[in-house]
Amino acid sequence: MEDARLKTGIWVKAMLRQAGQTGNPGMVLHHGDDDAGGVLVVLLGRGGHMSVLAQTRTPDGRRAWFRATGEAAVDQAGVDAYVTRQMERDPDLWVLEFDTPDLTPPFEAKLI
């Protein structure tokens, strides 16, 4: 398992730094559990287009992501509704937001 023991708070800091270095600034919208919180990533694209990535694991235990709001871009209301539902289910959830023109993750991410 590649990163199973990496605490979420450390991973978040690393991803924010990595994205910032590539010109895609990010911020924490909700601070979750530092040790083992799940992560949602809101991607802000051009023209108000948005997408939400949710964290999952591959069968071999590696971190992966899927487009939780679907393949098509959504608006702010769609993002807010999804994030609110997830936060109600998991208050330890981290929510990050990144500016990325083409709605691709600005950090190393396996999309499934």
Automatic annotation (TrEMBL):
Q: Which organism is it from?
A: Komagataeibacter swingsii
The protein in question is named DUF1491 domain-containing protein
* InterPro entries, per database record: DUF1491 (IPR009964)
Q: Which domain of life is it from?
A: Bacteria
- Tell me which Pfam families the record gives: DUF1491
